[in-house]
């Protein structure tokens, strides 16, 4: 009899602990230390936060400051959004949206930041992606530290890695190779450019395509054409400088 009581008691303790750790359907939070569900517990459902923090989150978060130490899936709308893991869905913040891991979906804020790879739309006054980017990145300043595939637009656009697609801004810079179109006041690709550069000043490491502008500069023309007032080809094959038209085929 005593063994049955002990076994039943142990089972009840385990079940109670399991229920306590189950994902909660509702979170109400004033601060991360004053909230209905503990911050180390996950949420599947609705979060209403002044400043709330949880582990993994799936569902809808509304309020001012949202924090997740794990992954987030769903919709997050607030002044500041912070996800330390991956994010899948819509992360909309008036001031700041940050995801440390991979992001898939739409991220918007005055400052939008992704610490990992990004797939989707990143739209803010300042956009920054530390990893590779696939999609659309419009803003005043748009930065991709890895490779970029898609469209990058703004007053200043900057891609550290390889760029494939359309880069349009007043100043467009690609540190790696670029395959596509650069349109702006100043266009620069430090690597190999394959495509069309349209701007007041165009500069490339190697041009395999068309440069159309007032001043066109290339360290090496290799199957390229320059059309502008001044056309510079540093390797001087066949010509180092020509007005109006310069080429190498």
Q: Gist?
A:
The protein is built from one helix and 16 strands. It is mainly β.
Which labels suit this protein?
1 helix, mainly beta, elongated, 16-stranded mixed beta sheet, 249 residues, disordered N terminus
Describe the SSE topology.
Blueprint: H1 2-21, E1 24-31, E2 34-35, E3 43-54, E4 57-68, E5 72-83, E6 87-99, E7 103-114, E8 118-129, E9 133-138, E10 141-144, E11 148-159, E12 163-174, E13 178-212, E14 215-218, E15 224-233, E16 241-248
Parallel strand pairs: 1-3, 3-4, 4-5, 5-6, 6-7, 7-8, 8-9, 8-10, 9-11, 10-11, 11-12, 12-13, 13-14, 13-15, 14-15
Antiparallel strand pairs: 1-2, 15-16
Give a description of the structure.
- This protein has 1 helix and 16 strands.
- The chain is mostly beta strands and 249 residues long.
- The protein has a domain of 68 residues.
- It has a 16-stranded mixed sheet that branches.
- The longest helix is centred in the N-terminal third of the chain and has 20 residues.
- It is elongated.
- It starts with a helix and ends with a strand.
- The relative contact order is 0.06.
Q: Give the helix level as a range of percent.
A: under 10%
Give unreliable regions as ranges: 1-20
Can you summarize the main beta sheet?
A: 16 strands, mixed
Summed up, the helix count is 1
What series of H and E elements makes up the topology? HEEEEEEEEEEEEEEEE
> What is the structural class?
mainly beta
């Amino acid at each position: 009899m005593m063994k049955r009581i002990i076994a039943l008691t142990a089972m009840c303790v385990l079940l109670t602990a399991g229920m306590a750790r189950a994902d909660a359907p509702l979170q109400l939070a004033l601060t991360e230390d004053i909230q209905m569900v503990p911050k180390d517990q996950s949420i599947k459902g609705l979060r209403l936060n002044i400043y709330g923090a949880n582990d993994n989150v799936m569902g809808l978060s509304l309020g001012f400051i949202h924090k997740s130490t794990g992954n987030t899936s769903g919709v997050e709308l607030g002044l500041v959004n912070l996800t330390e893991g991956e994010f899948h869905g819509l992360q909309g913040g008036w001031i700041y949206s940050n995801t440390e891991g991979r992001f898939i979906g739409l991220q918007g804020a005055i400052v939008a930041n992704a610490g990992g790879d990004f797939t989707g739309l990143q739209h803010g006054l300042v956009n920054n992606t530390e990893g590779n980017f696939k999609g659309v990145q419009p803003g005043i300043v748009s930065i991709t530290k890895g490779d970029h595939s898609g469209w990058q637009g703004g007053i200043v656009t900057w891609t550290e890695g390889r760029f494939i697609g359309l880069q349009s801004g007043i100043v467009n810079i690609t540190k790696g190779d670029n395959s596509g179109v650069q349109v702006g006041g100043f266009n620069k690709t430090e690597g190999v450019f394959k495509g069309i550069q349209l701007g007041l000043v165009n500069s490339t490491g190697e041009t395999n395509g068309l440069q159309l502008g007032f001043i066109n500069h290339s360290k090496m023309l290799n199957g390229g054409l320059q059309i502008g007032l001044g056309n510079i080809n540093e390797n001087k094959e066949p010509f180092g400088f020509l007005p109006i038209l310069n080429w190498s085929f």
